[in-house]
């Protein structure tokens, strides 16, 4: 069962946001996912990442679902 994600309003200096957005694009993440990635890494480095925290999605598009085709059913 998926848990609901928390929403957070974050005020950033425009130059910091632009730098984050460029970094996120280079790593195929959204800016929001990049911020979460950095926060998780900082928590982990500080020894404060909770043990029960779920895994973060991998960067990039989710893998395509393979739908069974008519030829698969014949085998």
Automatic annotation (TrEMBL):
Coiled-coil spans in chain: none
GO biological process: regulation of DNA-templated transcription
Family annotation (InterPro entries): Arc_rbn_hlx_hlx, Ribbon_hlx_hlx
Region annotated Disordered, chain positions: 48-75
Protein name (database record): Toxin-antitoxin system HicB family antitoxin
Organism expressing this protein natively: Actinocatenispora sera
């Amino acid at each position: 069962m998926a848990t609901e994600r928390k929403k957070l309003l974050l005020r950033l200096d425009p130059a910091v946001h632009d730098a984050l957005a460029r970094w996120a694009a280079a790593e195929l993440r959204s800016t929001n996912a990049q911020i979460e990635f950095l926060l998780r890494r900082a928590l982990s480095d500080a020894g404060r990442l909770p043990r029960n925290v779920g895994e973060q999605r991998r960067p990039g598009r989710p893998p395509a679902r393979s739908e069974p085709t008519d030829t698969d059913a014949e085998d």
